[in-house]
């Protein structure tokens, strides 16, 4: 997946990632896990992201995979990611 930079701009502010929808002006602030995934999503597959999330946050494989899938689906729904 790649970030669609024509649709979203982003920056890190302290422990969170802030996203700006360039079409609507809406701002989204990602929590710690969302920020972790966002900063790594262009270098890794969804399964690799889930594995990294599992290790970083000491969660189960199933929970990490579910959280990763939900996160990626939401970012795609908003039009901020391309496959």
Structural summary, described in words:
Helices cover 43% and strands 24% of the residues. It contains three helices and five strands; from the N terminus they run E-E-E-E-H-H-H-E. It has helices at residues 32-38, 46-57, 61-77, and strands at residues 2-3, 8-13, 16-21, 27-30, 81-82. A three-stranded antiparallel beta sheet has the order 2-3-4. A two-stranded antiparallel sheet has the order 1-5. Strand 2 and strand 3 (16-21) form a beta hairpin. The protein is globular, with a radius of gyration of 12 Å. The model has no long low-confidence stretch (mean pLDDT 95).
Q: Give the structural class.
A: alpha+beta
Give the SSE string. Answer: EEEEHHHE
Query: If you consult CATH, what is the topology?
Result: Arc Repressor Mutant, subunit A
Radius of gyration: 12 Å
β-strand percent reads: 15-25%
Strand order of the largest sheet: 2-3-4
The total count of helices amounts to 3
Assembly state: single chain
Q: Which segments are poorly predicted (pLDDT under 50) over 5 or more consecutive residues?
A: none
Helix amount: 40-55%
Q: Regarding CATH, which class? A: Mainly Alpha
Q: In the CATH classification, which architecture applies?
A: Orthogonal Bundle
Largest sheet: 3 strands, antiparallel
Distance between the termini: 4 Å
